[in-house]
Amino acid sequence: MRIVLDTNVVLSALLWRGTPHHLLASIRQRSSIQIYSSTALLEELADVLTRPSAAKRLALIGRSAREVLADYVEAVELVEPTTVPRVVVGDADDDQVIAAAVAAHADLIVSGGKN
Length: 115
Prior knowledge:
alpha/beta
């Protein structure tokens, strides 16, 4: 199975221990499931990890943004979409998720968003 995770799910999975964390841990234990991401999605994650709310959480768990990002990069297969069409009204970042999913021939997109 091929999966693309939205940045909000990845952030929750990496910084907290709720459902997204358990989902990511479960995926990483199954060789039949591969997570895909793109440079744009990784750049968004890197940006979000530098925001004050994430920085506070990182300090609490004793990790740096760089360490958390590096761990996630090792867990994903990178794809590079050739185009990023405007699909999601009101959230261009979600268009990047759709584009990565198309490029990865993903079976599933996991998002915590309302769109």
